[in-house]
Structure formats: structure tokens, C-alpha cells
Amino acid sequence: MASIIDIKLPGTIAKVFGLPNGDVSRQQRKVLKKLLKKARFTEFGQKYEFDKILLSKDIERAYQQSVPIHDYNKIYNEWWKKTLDGVPDVTWPGKIEYYALSSGTSEASSKYIPVTKDLLRSNTINYLKQLISVFTYQEANKKSLRKSFLIIGGATDLQKSDKGWYAGDLSGILAKKRPFWFQTFYKPGGRIAALRDWNEKLNEIVEHARDWDIGYIVGVPAWCQMCMEMIIERYNLKNIHEIWPNFGVFVHGGVAFQPYKKSFERLLGKPIVYVENYLSSEGFIGYKMREHAQGMQLITDNNIFFEFIPFDSNNFDADGNLLPNAKAVLINEIEEEKEYAILLSTNAGTWRYLIGDTIRFLDTRRCELIITGRTKHFLSLVGEHLSVENMNRAIEEANNHFNISIPEYTVTGFPYKNYFAHKWYIATDDPVDPQELLTFIDNTLKSINDDYATERASALKDVFIEILPEEKFLKFMELRGKLGSQNKFPRVMKGNLLQSWDKFLSTGKI
């Protein structure tokens, strides 16, 4: 049987192996020019005079001065809303045929993110680049790349509107639009992939698991782990390699992998290679290109122009909202170990768009970064500046210290006895003393976050914990209609979401 690596790949792709080619500033300038030229006759391009920007000596600065920063509500209400009515040439040439439905982790209603043919083409190229990069990994089992790919994602059975466009999970759109030659290697196949009921989909995968020779799995860690656990239980196995001996590569994204790694590796019979990618509804932002890299490398030459807003009090308020005079820097101005919110301009008609992620560069020369959290998913009641990255690290160390698995957690902050407090909700089915676990997490956070340590000695008077079965977290997601591979449990609870969580814990309803 032929394998995916026997397919003749485009020559331009085969040249790319993990180091930025040339000057990334020049690459980014070229990307910006290409985007502006393509969109200059759209409504957006005409309003913000893309033709004039293209004539500027400093095209990046002219672009920043002319085009405002957009969050979803701003760009949707002013621009994207028109495209849902079938209006063409709004922010990108032509009509929008697909929309990725995205609600992040806190918003109640779905966002409609345009997905153009140009974006799908860019994503396909980046998928192939990522696949090729794995061949440079010394520890990768090359045999696994000749086997089938299991992609655990959203339903490919998309919703069709009366205007002719389709909407659904991004993973479903990508699966539906993958090249014809890929279908030979793709599992679980079209019929199962189209299923909307997440439990039904998992059960179907389990039933067919013994018929497949899986070498490569792609998906969000929590749902891939759940699927493998179900397979192991169904066939009375010791580990997943007893049924898929060639499984050697796991491509993951969407959430930090550290909290899941220990419980994930319990399911394995031998080591595998982990490849993190940074794929959002708005575009394929980056992936781990070097075998032992600590972070993912930005894709700087494929139709995404990046800007970065320092995530500090000069640019964001205490709730993570962008301030009116926020300033963005370019890729040649970034600093290592500094936190930024990321802006994208893409070939799907997103312009200076705040996607809500915060990142930190580990290596500016290679443009390697890690995702540290979300602009609105952090705790800083009194200046403790507790990021999701801090929380993930504390959970990972707790997993190792107590030899337990904590697949999910969330944290909230509240006034307490004239001061303030945090409360952790921890999902684990393993036995552990709650107070010992809380003390360990608290001490770990003090050791890695000076601001947290300072505030714990003053205004942040106490920390509480409640340990719950993992099933509780899954049930909450199910009741919110967010059970599935595209949805992530919020790491920080605030506002209406916190009220729903409190009601759920007390009544079982939301």
C-alpha cells in the first residue's frame, strides 16, 4: 500500500525544514504587501486606502496608522456581518463559502470566523510542512508516517445556510476540504467524521479501532486521551500500542499539553514523538519545527502578517480589555521572555485582529514561542498576575509529585474577609489529600511567580480547593453544548460563566 510520504509534494514545500528562511522582517513585509494588493478593491481596502499604504516607504507603519485594531465584535458588526448575507468583496475578494464556528471558552454565542479558499490552501501547505519537519526528528519512528492518520476533530457534516454558505467546527471544514490524495490515509473516514454526536463518534472509532493501523494521531489532548482509554477498556488492553503498534507521532494543539502528559503516557507501551501546533480558526500560526525545541515557530512566510501588543497595564485593563491607545510592535521589535497579545492579518479578511491569545517568545532569532494564556483568562485581583502558564506548570508539577492525573481544572478569585482569595476546582479520580495538594500548588506558584508570592503575604489572604471527579467537568461542558474536540474547559472562571458553574455544582443544572 502507498503511504502519504510516497505522494509527490509541491516543490516549494519540500524546501522548508524548520529554520526561518532569510530575514523574517522581509518575509513579513512581503506577506503584508501581498495581502494588501489582493484586498485593495474590497470595501475594507477602499475605506482604509490600501493603495496609499502600498505606496508608502514604511508600509508596516502606514498600515498600523491607517487600520484600527479589531476584536471580534468590532470586525463582525462593521464588516463580517455583511458577508453572512452573501455580500461579496467585503474584507476579502469574493463570497465567503465557509465559517468556522468558534466560541473560545467563555462566550455564550458562537463566533462566525470567515474561512476562505485562500486560507484553506495556506493551511494545507502548512500541514504538509509540519509533516515534513517530523522526518528530521531523530527519535521519530519513520514507519509510523507510512501508516494511517487518525484525526479526532469536529463534525464534517456542516450546517448550510439559506444564503449558500456552510458553518461548523474548523477541524470539520479542514477534514472536508482536505486534498483527495489524503483521504486514503485519513481515519476515521468520511461517515464517522460527519457524526455530530460526540459520544456516538467516539464509540464508532472504538468499534473500528482494531481494523486500522494508526501511526499518527492529531487532536486536542483531552479527547484523544478519552478515545484511547475507551479503546483500551473495550479490548481489554494494557496500552494503546497493543492495538496500534506503529503509533509514533501525536500532533496536539488548542491547550497546553503539560497537565495531560502524565496520564496520557500511562496509555502508551513505548515512547512517541509529540508535535505541538498553533492552529486557530483564523489561521495556522505555527508549529514545533525542531525536535527538542521548547516552543513553536511562527510561520512567517505564508499569508499571515503578525503584530504583537505587550500584555501590560499600558495596553490592557484589569479585565484584559484592550485600551484605546494600545500600541503594537512588529516581529523585529519583539523581546524574549516578554508577554504579548497577538494580532493577525490574513488571507481570510482578518485585519489587525486580536485573537485573544497571549504568547511569550523563547527565541527571537528562530521566532519560537509558547502560548501563555488568554487576554481575559488570568487572575490579577490584587496584582498577583497569575497566568494560565503558571497554573499549568503548578498542575504539571503536582501530577508528578503526587503521581496523580489532573486532566482538568479551573480557578476563580473573589473578595474574602475584607481581602481576597482564590479557589481551585480540581478534576482527578486518583486519591490525594486535598490540603496537601493545595499547599503544594500554592508553594509552587510562590516559587515561580514573585508577584503571587508578594500578594499571598498581603492582600491575597487565602486559597481554597475543591476536588471533583472528571465526569463533573465533562457534564458541565455537555450542558453548555460544548462537548467535543474544538472546545476547551476555561482555566479561569469569571462573570456569567462563574455563575453558571456555581449553579451547576449546587443543582446539577446551568
UniProtKB/TrEMBL annotation:
<dbReference type="Pfam" id="PF23572">
    <property type="entry name" value="GH3_C"/>
</dbReference>
<dbReference type="InterPro" id="IPR004993">
    <property type="entry name" value="GH3"/>
</dbReference>
<feature type="domain" description="GH3 C-terminal">
    <location>
        <begin position="389"/>
        <end position="494"/>
    </location>
</feature>
<dbReference type="InterPro" id="IPR055377">
    <property type="entry name" value="GH3_M"/>
</dbReference>
<protein>
    <recommendedName>
        <fullName>GH3 auxin-responsive promoter</fullName>
    </recommendedName>
</protein>
<feature type="domain" description="GH3 middle">
    <location>
        <begin position="299"/>
        <end position="363"/>
    </location>
</feature>
<dbReference type="InterPro" id="IPR055378">
    <property type="entry name" value="GH3_C"/>
</dbReference>
<dbReference type="Pfam" id="PF03321">
    <property type="entry name" value="GH3"/>
</dbReference>
<dbReference type="Pfam" id="PF23571">
    <property type="entry name" value="GH3_M"/>
</dbReference>
